[in-house]
Design brief:
Elements (H helix, E strand, L loop, with lengths): L3 H15 L4 E10 L2 E9 L6 H18 L7 E6 L10 H6 L4 E6 L4 E9 L3 E5 L6 E3 L3 E6 L9
Length: 154
Amino acid sequence: MSDAREQQIADLVGPIVAEHGADVEFVTIRKAGRRSVVVVAVDVDGGITLDQIAEFTPRVSEALDEADVMGETPYTLELTSPGVGRPLTLPRHWRRAQNRLVQVQLNDDSELTGRIIEADDQHVTLSVDGQQPVIDFSDVAKAVVQVEFGEAGA
């Protein structure tokens, strides 16, 4: 999060969503005419549902209003899931994407595409063409979940 207000919002909202087992993945603020749209992406292991988001949205909204982070700028709050196109940058992203197909670019510029079998805080095990390489996160330059049509892991 590059903007100081975005980080301030993430710090404010983080404890509220954590009570529900969720994490703030990112916050963005974008202009929409005279208003701003504050987008807070949250996620949980197994993926976040609309019902889960609805549980804490009122508290998040109230906290933002009370903290006056946006000052006099009118804004709309949008709580959402991170979406499939986001890069996998933290161990929890890998864990939450278990059984999903990912494209991984390694620091040596090699690439591989495989399904996440398991991940811990340091490594990920993929299924790639019948092999199960264990990759250290420090060796990953970039990784993105691939969009699949049909059931994940099918």
